[in-house]
Design brief:
2 strands, mainly alpha, about 140 residues, IrrE N-terminal-like domain-containing protein
Length: about 140
């Protein structure tokens, strides 16, 4: 949303996964860059709502995907056709990103959340709650 001229982004840690965090943050940054205006001050996303579809959402999804794993890299990667830990780690090493981001892309593209499920990392431990303590699940 815009608070005057200042963009404000709020993310939940409900999905405590590094792939979800970076995708959601980049998705919202695309909205700030391209969609927020004085006439359009607020966008509420629910990334769990699979029925959502608009040009804005598609643009934000595409814009969030490309910086993490560029399409040319994804299309040419071995992990796309053979989703193994070895192939996921190889692509992650080449792109200098966390392997959980590659594993998340594999799961999303295949629609199979069990693929590479052992490759994961949380983000919650990197945040403090509003009282200065460690953020913990409710």
């Amino acid at each position: 949303m815009l608070d005057g001229e200042t963009p404000v982004i709020a993310l939940t840690l409900r999905h405590d996964r590094v792939d979800n965090f970076w995708f959601a943050l980049l998705h919202e940054l695309i909205h700030v860059q391209k969609h927020l205006t004085p006439a359009h001050l607020f966008i509420a996303d629910n990334l769990d709502d699979k029925s959502r579809s608009s040009a804005e959402e598609e643009e934000a999804d595409e814009g969030a995907t490309e910086p993490l794993i560029p399409l040319a890299e994804w299309e040419g990667s071995e992990v796309k056709g053979a989703p193994s830990a070895k192939n996921a780690n190889a692509l992650a090493d080449r792109l200098r990103i966390h392997p959980a981001i590659v594993a998340g892309r594999v799961r999303h593209e295949e629609g199979n959340w069990r693929l590479l499920s052992h490759i994961k990392a949380g983000v919650r431990q990197h945040f403090n709650d509003h009282l200065g303590g460690s953020a913990s699940p409710s």
